[in-house]
Amino acid sequence: MATSQQLQLLAPLSGVLISLDQVPDPVFSRRVIGDGLCIDPTSSTLCAPLAGVVSNVQASGHAISITADTGVQVLMHIGLDTVNLGGQGFTRQVEEGQRVEVGQALIEFDADYVALHARSLMTLMLVVSGESFSWCVSPSGLVETGQALLSLASATASSEEPLIAEGQRLFSQSLKLPNPNGLHARPAAVFAQAAKAFSAKIYLHKQQSEANAKSLVAIMALQTAFGDSVQVSALGDDAEDAVNTLTRLLAEGCGEALTAVVAVAPVERAEAEALTVLRGVCASPGSVLGTAVQITEPTLEVKEFGAGAHIERETLANALIEADMALQHLRDIAISEAQAEIFKAHQELLEDPSLLDQAQALIVEGKSAAFAWRAATESTATLFQQLGSALLAERAADLADVGVRVLKLILGVRERALELHAGTILIADQLTPSQTAGLDTEKVLGFATVGGGATSHVAILARACGLPAICGMPGQMLALANGAQVLLDADRGELHLHPDPEAISQWQARHEQQRQRHHHEQAQATQAACTRDGHHIEVTANVASLSETERAMAVGSTGVGLLRSEFLYLDRNHAPTRDEQVSTYSAIARAVGPSHNLVVRTLDVGGDKPLAYVPMDSETNPFLGLRGIRLCLARPDLLREQFRAILGSVGLTRLHIMLPMVTQLAELRLARQMLEEEALALNLGQLPKLGIMIEVPAAALMADVFAPHVDFFSIGTNDLTQYTLAMDRDHPRLASQADSFHPSVLRLIALTVNAAHAHGKWVGVCGAMASERLAVPLLLGLGVDELSVSVPQIPAIKAAVREVDLLDCKAIAEQVQGLESAEEVREALRLYQEATVDTLPALEN
Ligand code: PEP
Ligand code: MG
After folding, report:
1. Per the CB 3.0–4.6 Å rule, which of 53, 327, 432, 634 could disulfide with 401?
2. Which residues are part of the catalytic machinery?
3. Residues 6+ apart with CB under 8 A from 325
4. Containing domain of residue 145, as a range?
């Protein structure tokens, strides 16, 4: 008989009981979600094993959770990989939020269909709220629907429940934690799992605090560190055993002592995979399955000597005109602003006086137009490549592209249209921007190249057309035969050669899950971004134009957290007039509206992004040179003009001005003085808010000094990472290491937030990190108030905020700052996501 503190779980189905250890899916067999049982069903109606409320039922009908009034939560999952059936074969009998009685029918399923189309019909019943249980029957053999199977100790003892005397609680001796980073996610998960094996109530104590030892999140919230004194206590039948076992586990490092053994596995796996998986850097996200087709360029035969300077000059001039017309046509039919901008830049290269002078000089020496043009473009491209700037090296690719376009016209070589079949994945040493823009997206699913970087024009174009792409692949990729089946997983930067059926079906399941998640996020995009425990976060947009601002506001952005004003200044020969600036800013301000923030960042150009009309000396280390606010203070006329133009939007929106690359307080003081003077000159009583970007480590370290002088901070994690780790942010070979999840960057973010909050100021993050779903719990936990993200990511980031509890986020953020690498931080966050947010294998609803 169940006592008043016990709850019995009845069999939801008839069938054969199977131990979870035998379930061929590690998510279940390792009890990642919770402990419980598995039934291979002989009936086809899933019934409620307990009374309670339906806390979740998947739209596809294959999984359902019931929460009892005591807080006990039980998940039932029908079959393995049944999410892929997309609801086929399942009929839901209840709705989310509905109260159900024990034994009530929850889901009907077509057992024959599911058995034929899914991996298995094995059905799981798991206690996901962590209570221990004892068996009411032998844990194997046949069971009938409604038969009592498990007996649970009630999770939340209500105040009426008889309390067990304190004296019955057993305490261990205190011991010092041996884990270098305390009980961070991995050892905490090991400890919680071990604790769940006991029926006793178990607690982990640190000083005055205690945590439910069966809860990963609670353990992490204790925020333990190396050498902390901790104790285990337990209350219940197997308390003594629990205390002894768990104390031993703690002393042994909760599995961390085994890292040497564990570390072998990935290495071996990597070796085994080396033949089948090639890795590069994600240039454009997404994943596709298709057939590899190699693109090779014909070798162009070029005669050195020409038919006389007059004829060759004319030949070159005609080719340049034709190339210009072709590029204009490409601009006219471009599907995005980004694409059009690239061809405009190519047109400008055709007029570049230095290139033309070099070519003309060679023609005068008697060389052919083709020879002269090729020599001029190739030598300039080589120069770009050798200047040590990744950005210029990538622009060399543009020059080579224009070079070949003109060369083919001189030689009369017709552009050969690529004959491609549907389902093609292109493999190439390098794709030119023209080739990329000309790809038939009906047939080409994606591409992988040896050359190129994540910021190359090819990458920008791929993103604009939504083509998944990887660059920086190893040269051995070019040995791949045409027609080979490949799986291009750009999200992970991986190209899987000849994927086996299992890899394909895993990919399909993931792909389907992503599709459904995306659909759901879009549908909820306009809802507020509030954590489960009610903490509101601003999710705003990073934009660089009016059209982008309009798109952002349409997909649920609550303002603009970063307007990159450079777009008004680059690629032109004169500074924009004040009127032009005023009209652009005010159009954007109107699009944002009076109830949202618009954060306009002042001009962020310099060394690596030179302005044609601002003569500057060339710099050996442009990223460490006259950039951002430094350039603006050196050219105060530019900054004052921009301030005046921005001030034209006062009253149209909640206007904020933000200064980039600030390192010294004096820079902020000077800029503020100029802003005040300009506002005074315009007779403006009301000043916009003034803040700075935190992207130089010096500013983060001295955030407490800056905080009293600003209205807000916005952390530019792209630059903050490159300066903290001393890694060029555009370097294709360092791309995977220059990771904003590095604990050093996280500590700087924490410093910044703490300093700002101590002075009542808000902090945003506008670097690319804020657009990563994995970073959401981390940044929230670090105390960030606003996430400014790229426009397409707005719905996903808002959805990610809604999935977490701020308290949990704080615990995980505290933990990961103690880890040793970005990889470890990412792994801990993934684990955290699996253990909390992504607990269900199917997250599609
Ligand atoms: C940053 O550095 O993170 C940032 C947002 O600025 P940008 O990428 O424009 O340099
Ligand atoms: Mg920056």
Report:
1. 432
2. 457, 766
3. none
4. 6-153
